[in-house]
Amino acid sequence: MARSGISKFRVQQARDALLARGEHPSIDAVRVELGNTGSRTTLHRYLRELSDEEGIRVDQEQCLSEPIKALIASLAGRLHEEASEVIASAQARRDTERQTQEAEIIRLAQELEAVQARVMELDAGWSAERQAHETANANWQAERIRASEAAKENESLHLRLMEHERHLQSLEEKHRHARESLEHFRQAAKEQREQEQRRHEQQVQQLQAENRQQAQTLIVKQDAITHLSQETARLAAELSDARHQLQDTLEQLQAQRQTADRLAVAHARLDVMHDQASGRLQAAEAANRQLTEEFREMSAQLVESQLGGQQMQAQLDAQAALYADLQQQLAGLIRPVADDAEGPPAPDA
């Protein structure tokens, strides 16, 4: 049996190649032309069958008339021309499709590179936005802590202010009581002096006797008045100090309120910046996801284009093999007619 891959058609090709070079198509020569493959028995059988077929074909051709032979030669030439045109058209279409596929692959590769560059750019922008968002969030947290501390300090100042106000009210109450006591004492002394003056004339002698006692009483009362005046002056001084402290406390409270207002404004501005940064971050993440999807689609299209190019190449290879077979078959049909047109066939070596 013949080895795998050895066929009658391959033996015919090898024999025709040897005849075209002017060499004798012996079994060894055909075996060498086939790459030292195939058994000699199989090669001998195939060569004998080919020789018998050519003998029958020559006998059949000898029965044909010259016009029929000319018609066959003309048809064979026309067939060769049409086959050449079909093959050339297929080759042109194959080249055009190949160029189109190559251009499409190049375009997809460029788009893929552009998408990759855009993805990298958006990744960098997203990282920057995320860094800014984290920085703004840290500043926002710090400002919240400062606002909380300021609120606590403001509450403490309010408590101190309330204590100062209560102390001031207490001092004013004491001062009022002291003024009332002094006024009452002055009124009582005045009334007593008026009564003593009315009774002065009737009680001159009695007053003279009691002058020493009244003088002593007056001294005691004067000491009491002096003490009350000193107490009043001390209370007035304390009231003045309390008013100064209250004014300082009010100024501190006003400053704290201004600071709290500025902190509130800064806090609102940070909230706005935080919302804007969050919006930009979400937009960047959405764009990143969209570009990732586009990148995947481009990759899939590129893979499909490459597969299509491979399939097209396989089809072109199959067409080329079919073209080669068609040329060989056409050569097998044309050769006897051409040989007969040129002259009688040469004897078989």
Automatic annotation (TrEMBL):
It comes from Thiobaca trueperi. This is Plasmid replication DNA-binding protein KfrA. Keywords: DNA-binding. InterPro entries: KfrA_DNA-bd_N (IPR021104). Residues 185-202 have a biased composition (Basic and acidic residues). GO terms for molecular function: DNA binding. Residues 185-209 are annotated as: Disordered. Pfam families: KfrA_N. Residues 8-118 form the KfrA N-terminal DNA-binding domain.
